[in-house]
Amino acid sequence: MGIGSSKLIPVNTPLTSFSGDIVEPLGEISLPVSLGTYPQRATKFIKFLVVDSPSAYNMILGRPSLNMFRAVASTYHLKIKFPTPDGVGEEIGDRRQARECYANTLKNPGNTPRLKAEKQKRMPQTTPGKHQEQTPHRESTTKSPEEKKRRKIEQERMEAIEEVKMIEFFGDPSKAVKIGTSLDSSFERNLTDFLREHSDVFAWEASDMQGVSPEIMVHKLNVHPEARPVKQKKRAFGVDRNRIIKEEVEKLLKINYIRPVQYPEWLANVVLVPKNNGKWRMCIDFTDLNRACPKDSFPLPRIDAMIDSTSGCELMSFLDAFQGYNQIRLAPEDQEKTSFVTEQGTYCYTVMPFGLKNAGATYQRLVNSMFQKQIGKNMEVYIDDMLVKSQKKEHHINDLTECFEILKSLV
């Protein structure tokens, strides 16, 4: 973060882990923390204890910090909500990153070093420009074997679990998949040939997808019959953001995900959400529509249980459904309820858009029915994220074949 150690305030209180081990903090520092997205954003100054200890997480917010934001956390939804002057703010967890952190911990159970409690109190010693801690057991200029091992583990945890490389299809760089570099040459060749043979399963752009047959799955809103339709007041955007919205609308029209609509009873606004790559994602504010829909109680899988089920697998392949939600058609009678307004006009979705209250449950119901014989045996599926797993490496291509054949039969 570029903050020098001189900014740390000395702390004499050690931290005690659940196992009873003690970690001595390097110091305390107050930093501004912002949660949410504009305008539902809140910023507070939080006191952090800085520790020199390897961890899958860069920062942990405790109960005092959450209380300062008056935040309510839901571990099930990986989300916290908190009040702001402009409404309720949300901070949504990164599901993929959470899985990676958890998987890394499971893969390296012995890579969490602990600092043992010392009977003698550590005496701080200050030198110009640097704060060091010295114990009676070793010189500050010499690293013990445990210290060297800990530093090595820290370095290993910063590296990727496994390096990957791109495999192009038909010499086209835009059509490629990633495979691990640790595969032996014979299996890598067989896997590459298999993937090229089944290249029709992969979608590189929206036109490659025909969508799920309505006979298999259709999303219905089931709006409460007594609910009063809501037309949101149109929001104003700047020139640059209107240009982004226009481009996105034109793209959605071209692939028939939306259509023009007249005299809609329900009308929502566009919301632009920043992506990690600096670009913008166009979403629709379905708050009012979602409030009028009953909750679909179809259960979503527990991520931690799914990760635990992969223990002992020699090989795994991760698949991400391309624009998964948009492959399910929206019931014709419900399409105009998803209407939204832009500078160019009013439109409604013909496919299930992201942001609807029960979209995740509908998609999970679809994949559960598709892969009912594979889930738990050689597959795990969480909404549009799929994992093909094999206890033995030599079975992996057969397991992938099962998955691909089901995907081909879907359209």
TrEMBL record:
The name this protein goes by in its record: Transposon Ty3-G Gag-Pol polyprotein
Gene3D superfamilies assigned to the protein according to its UniProt record, in alphabetical order: 3.30.70.270, HIV Type 1 Reverse Transcriptase, subunit A, domain 1
Region named Disordered: 102-153
Superkingdom, taxonomy of origin: Eukaryota
Organism listed in the record: Sesamum radiatum (Black benniseed)
SUPFAM superfamilies in alphabetical order: DNA/RNA polymerases
CDD domains, per database record: RT_LTR
Basic and acidic residues bias (residue ranges): 130-153
Pfam family, one: RVT_1
Domain spans labelled Reverse transcriptase: 273-409
InterPro entries, sorted: DNA/RNA_pol_sf, Rev_trsase/Diguanyl_cyclase, RNA-dir_DNA_polymerase, RT_dom
